[in-house]
Amino acid sequence: MSKKADIALIGLAVMGQNLILNMDSKGFVVCAYNRTVDKVTHFLNNEAKGTNIIGATSLQDMVNKLKTPRKVMMLVKAGSAVDDFIAQLVPLLSPGDVIIDGGNSEYQDTARRCNELKSKGLLFVGSGVSGGEEGARYGPSLMPGGHPEAWPLIKDIFQSICAKSGNEPCCEWVGEGGAGHFVKMVHNGIEYGDMQLICEAYDLMKRLGLTQEEMAKEFDKWNREELDSFLIEITRDILKYKDGSGPLLERIRDTAGQKGTGKWTAIAALQYGVPVTLIGEAVFSRCLSALKDERVKASKVLQGSDAKPAVKDKAEFLNHIKHALYCSKIVSYAQGFMLMREAAKENGWNLNYGGIALMWRGGCIIRSVFLGNIKDAFKRNPDLSNLLLDDFFKKAIEKGQHSWRQVVSNAILWGVPVPALSTALTFYDGYRSERLPANLLQAQRDYFGAHTYELLGQEGKFVHTNWTGTGGNVSASTYQA
Question: Which candidate, 277, 274, 251, places its Cα nearest to that of 339?
Fold first, then answer.
């Protein structure tokens, strides 16, 4: 009798192929399937040649070749394609079988699918998979969530194929329902923020007259200091890269694309009422970059600053940029963990924040030494309400905030846009403020809409004032503005 597979994987784009090859290299028998069956044949005859990987010509054939309880993983486009495959799989599977969605699905879709499949006796997992094509092949960061009963069935496979930080796997069970995909969404949002911050640092260096080679040397230096990370490393490599026509970077059109997970993070922040300002600015910066034709026209007619970017001590200012980037990065992660904490409270998830930092410590796009410090912070205090209050991060910002303020204030005086660096600083100043001008805002709301306010020392008691003498004394109770 032919061998039975430990797991099946649907979707043979490069990520899918690499994940299958990763599983095979760890000793698991994988059954590969793709809606276009020719892709299966090509994969088996080329990339998978000489391996233990087997193929399937149909979903029924794939299911027949699986050990029970069956485990089927999908790496297909998020949205209707996932629902279509689930609909086709349900009649072929048995109670206790596991369906895993490894795509970038919206977490509420994952929660819905969990509920729908639970009624049919099937176990559903929505797993974040980060690390790109290379990570999929040699060790991604994996963030599984969904039906807890599924975890013991897939744990060995997932923790074998994932990246390792020291000897610890960058994969652990996240939580029920859409928890895994929510954590992956926040990961991607933080990725947006990190990338935008680096772009702003690059832009400032460029306007100060540094060559790409000089910038590459600076990023290389930073990568050996506090900012040691994958994104700083690849930025260095991009700046050094040349083709037959010279440095490539300056010939790339300055319009950024996006697939939606950063936008989802910003939307979730608004829904949960968490000020995740840096990721929001990173998303809007991509939107602004897309207005290329309008920006070209505006550049010819809109007046900016007359001050030319210049500093007395370039080496000192480059050090200021490094600290500004580091402080802003701390704020970005602090906001991301604030969002996860609020979502966990609303959805009843028991998230392990130190464990999440460890999952991101290797294999994924935002991997950095910095994440080890986050893990340590939650180890010191599992109930930490905000990373900014941890001694390590508090001291880092105390050390770097003068530089941070120098960079942001100079950039504004020069007319250089730094939306992520500046919003991070504004958030920090707002978060550390005992009093904000929201007292005036509440008075305004009460003036025009009778929305009431609380007096200091009388919290919990909402009162309304007839500010003009001609309004009513009845407060609004039907809507919030």
Answer: 274
| 184: annotated active-site residue | yes
Residue 221: active-site member:
no
Which residue type occupies 156? D
Tens of pLDDT, residues 383-395: 999 999 999 999 9
| pTM for this prediction | 0.90
13 is in an annotated binding site: yes
Provide the pLDDT for residue 1.
45
| 259 annotated to bind ligand | yes
- Candidate list 39, 65, 71, 184, residue with the active-site label: 184
Which domains are present in the chain? 7-173 (3.40.50.720), 184-432 (1.10.1040.10), 437-480 (1.20.5.320)
CA distance 374 to 372: 5
Is residue 130 marked as binding?
A: yes
Angle at 428 between CA 418 and CA 443, to 5 degrees: 105
Confidence of residue 479 (pLDDT cuts 50, 70, 90): very low
| Active-site residue identified among 191, 200, 218, 281 | 191
Q: Is 187 annotated as a binding residue?
A: yes
The answer to whether the annotation marks 14 as part of a ligand binding site is yes
Do 208 and 155 meet the contact criterion of CB atoms below 8 Å apart?
Answer: no
**Least reliable range by pLDDT among 98-102, 195-199, 373-377:** 373-377
CA-wise closest residue to 106 among 21, 186, 24: 186
Q: Is 15 annotated as a binding residue?
A: yes
